[in-house]
Write a structure and sequence with these properties.
Blueprint: H1 30-36, E1 43-45, H2 60-69, E2 77-81, E3 84-85, E4 92-93, E5 104-105, H3 107-115, E6 119-122, H4 125-128, H5 130-143, E7 147-154, E8 169-176, E9 179-184, H6 201-210, E10 215-219, E11 224-227, E12 232-237, E13 242-249, H7 254-263, H8 284-304, H9 307-318, H10 329-337, E14 344-347, E15 354-356, E16 361-364, E17 369-372, H11 377-383, E18 389-390, H12 399-411, E19 415-416, H13 418-422
Antiparallel strand pairs: 1-11, 2-3, 2-6, 4-5, 6-7, 7-13, 8-11, 8-13, 9-10, 9-12, 14-18, 14-19, 15-16, 16-17
């Protein structure tokens, strides 16, 4: 299949968003995956069982374009061999006249390292390669967890990293070549982000050496492998150059809720009182005298806490981890300026928000709250449903108020015009759910 550089992944319309189109490119049965594999079991799915290969998302020519023509800088690139990461100075330098920044990727140095058997890791492709920007936007909406995407380019018969585990779940999508993967059960199940594999390096090495793997197979183009966080894995390229996408889902955990519940304890006056004068917190005997009362205060706090208490903190913490659909600034400004009653608009895909009708009506976003007159509540609900709407069709508002409201929402980057998006290669992903 011929790959067109920059060709975008086009998710399905909002009405079918419940089908999770990006996730369905990674697994055969979404419900079975959710119930039987998510967070607990590795899953290898071969290309014939999946909807399509992944060369619309990425390719070897795409990698060459990024490495040679896009002016990448660190940390968008990492290079390693046999588990040893190469220093940035070995593959970066200034970019010549008008681009003297010293940490730009040097394609000639990358070529030499790759020829010497080093693996090249293109990092954060969900920010630098348009089809993967779109795919990550849709997958984050499908899965409900933030998404990052890296690509691993490995020379023939080479291994970039030894057995290790990640602190996020991963889909491995094989793009080109063949790679032999070995996956083992965890030695430290469900690790948090501050519990890296290096904390258990001895156990990891022993398990990879002595225990039977749960996956021991070759990935070929179009294959997908799901590796839950904590599962040990290593891979080796076979006879040709291998390229795969590592799609990381930064799992939101129950511990996150515990952390925020505990943070709410700062609102309890009794839990903010000073420790006794002269108290030594390193003395077990003194702690024994204090802990029973402290535990009871904390239990009382946790028992009284409600979901309504917790959601504002969770919004602040989680909404900022996922970017909404990109907007083209120049086309967006032009569309805002030329707004008319016949203009079609829609909410940006994957925009986290919460609308509270009232006087005033409040639209809570990840970084700010916007207030509107109470009379706009019905029109706002209409506009935020993820569907396309003509400005002149908005309910309960006069023509002048329709234009005023939509212009405000365009200026705040809440809405976009599909025509301005059509001028870019980016997709029209439209998850159509209000976030809690």
């Amino acid at each position: 299949m011929t790959t067109v550089l920059g060709a975008g992944y086009r998710p399905e319309p909002a009405a079918e968003a419940v089908d999770r189109p990006a996730l369905r490119r990674c697994v055969v049965n979404v419900d079975e995956f959710a119930n039987s594999y998510w967070g607990s079991r590795a899953l290898l799915t071969h290309a014939p069982d999946l909807p399509a290969p992944y060369d619309d998302l990425f390719s070897l020519p795409a990698a060459d374009e990024l490495l040679s023509r896009r002016g990448l800088r660190t940390p968008f690139l990492r290079i390693a061999k046999n588990g040893v990461v190469v220093g940035d100075s070995q593959f970066t330098g200034p970019g010549g006249v008008g681009a003297d920044i010293p940490d730009q990727v040097r394609d000639d140095k990358v070529a030499a390292l790759f020829a010497d058997g080093h693996t090249v890791v293109l990092q954060a492709l969900h920010r630098t390669w348009p089809p993967l920007v779109d795919f990550a936007t849709q997958l984050s909406a499908d899965a409900g967890h933030p998404v990052q995407i890296n690509s691993y380019l490995t020379p023939p018969e080479s291994r970039g990293f030894s057995a290790h585990y990640d602190v996020h779940d991963v889909f491995v999508l094989q793009v080109a070549g063949e790679k032999h993967w070995t996956v083992h059960e965890p030695v430290h199940p469900n690790p948090l982000r501050n519990q890296p594999w290096t904390d258990h390096s001895t156990a990891v090495a022993a398990a990879a050496r002595d225990k039977a793997p749960v996956v021991d197979d070759v990935l070929r183009p179009g294959d997908a492998l799901y590796v839950p966080r904590g599962f040990l894995h290593s891979a080796k390229a076979l006879g040709g150059v291998s390229a795969h996408l590592t799609v990381g889902l930064h799992t939101l955990t129950r511990y996150l809720l515990v952390q925020e519940l505990t943070n709410l304890a700062a609102n309890e006056p009794d839990l903010r009182t000073a420790l006794p004068l002269g108290f030594d917190p390193t003395d077990p005997a003194q702690l024994d005298q204090l802990l029973p009362h402290l535990k009871q205060l904390l239990i009382n706090h946790l028992t009284a806490a409600t979901a309504a208490d917790l959601t504002p903190a969770l919004r602040r913490r989680t909404w900022s981890t996922t970017r909404p659909e990109p907007i083209p600034p120049l086309a967006h400004a032009a569309a805002t300026k030329s707004l008319t009653a016949s203009t079609t608009v829609r909410r940006r895909a994957n925009l986290r928000y919460h609308l509270t009708p009232g006087n005033p009506t409040t639209l809570q976003l990840s970084d700010r709250a916007i207030t509107f007159p109470e009379s706009t509540a019905q029109a706002l609900t209409h506009l935020l449903d993820g569907q396309d709407h003509k400005v002149g069709d908005l309910p309960t508002l006069t023509p002048a108020d329709q234009l005023t409201l939509v212009r405000r929402l365009l200026t705040e980057a809440v809405l976009i015009t599909p025509t301005s998006q059509a001028e870019t290669p980016l997709s029209q992903a439209r998850p159509a759910r209000e976030q809690p």
